Structure prediction request, 342 residues.
Amino acid sequence: MNYTPSPSRYDAMVYRRCGHSGLKLPAISLGLWHNFGEDANHETKRAICREAFDCGITHFDLANNYGPPPGSAEEAFGEILKTDLRGYRNEIVISSKAGYGMWPGPYGEWGSRKYLISSCEDSLRRMGVDYVDIFYSHRFDPETPLEETMGALDSLVRQGKALYVGISSYNSDRTREAVRILGEMGTPLLIHQPSYNMLNRWVERDGLKETLAELGVGSIAFTPLAQGMLTGKYLKGIPEGSRATQGKSLRPSMINEQAIVHLNKLNEIAQARGQTLAQMAIAWVLRNEGITSALIGASRPEQVTDCVGAVSNLEFTEDELKLIDDYAREEDINLWARSSDS
Ligand SMILES: NC(=O)c1ccc[n+]([C@@H]2O[C@H](COP(=O)([O-])OP(=O)(O)OC[C@H]3O[C@@H](n4cnc5c(N)ncnc54)[C@H](OP(=O)(O)O)[C@@H]3O)[C@@H](O)[C@H]2O)c1
Prediction:
């Protein structure tokens, strides 16, 4: 099917400057962690990306290991770039990452120069692009000198394989070190990618938002919907086909009776604001401009349409925020804590 992007695609989306850089990101970005592997239908993947682009989502986030199998999400996105998005590369910000296990042996994970540079080259090949816009260190490596990991990111920029660099799930102290090291090399840190949502507030305890503001580094919050918990999907329990039934990253035990009561209360608050729960959860992450972009996932194009509606109301009253805090209690859902704890 031929696709022509909507001529009004830039009308409703909000674009925010990423830290002190020249790059603006859409307030909502699309990630391809789940739903883009070989276990998902390619036509649905195409439809999700087309809907995103039509809604003004210019930023697509990938990583070497997204699938299953690892690498297949980048291959699928490469296919979509060749078909639907052909001719639009200059309008799109593509990111990829390396840090988690990708191939066997001592060079297939963490933060060595050997791993990061070869992994980035593989990502470029799988997506069929000459460069990525942003390349990330996917997690902090306590055993590799940070100078080596940041040096590899700097080299990728100098080689023209990445335009900007980022880090993911680093705490404030590590972030400061990374900014200093990169600064000495002349490559500024563009962006930090932390997990953040109403049920996972480690960035607030860490002070990361303030740290990034002080350092002039942008931020993109992943899992703003707590992997789907903060949507209308689980208000009556766990529906067939949802992520919680797939044996992947969302434990069904998280959707217990207490959680369902709280989610329904949050849904009422959202309704009173004239929003869906997903829209309110995204708006909450983006409130006060503290976060540059909310990085969502989607299994259907209609979810993208719903999520994008969040940008029409990003303001909260103090009363609304207090009420949200009564029901959005922190849950044990931060699967990435090992990186920010080290
Ligand atoms: N840096 C890192 O270490 C890291 C780690 C994790 C993720 N990420 C990035 O963050 C991205 C987003 O992660 P995520 O997919 O967990 O984010 P999320 O937005 O919290 O959850 C997405 C899931 O929520 C459900 N959903 C989305 N919109 C919905 C709507 N309007 N109504 C009902 N359900 C809706 C869908 O679940 P169903 O599938 O059940 O329909 C969808 O797959 C990833 O793709 C990746 O790019 C980065």
In short: Residues 172 and 206 are 7 Å apart (CA to CA). Residues 31-35, 61, 138, 168-169, 193, 222-228, 231-233, 242-243, 278, 295-299, 303, 306-307, 336 surround NAP (CB under 6 Å). The chain has one domain: 15-228+283-311.
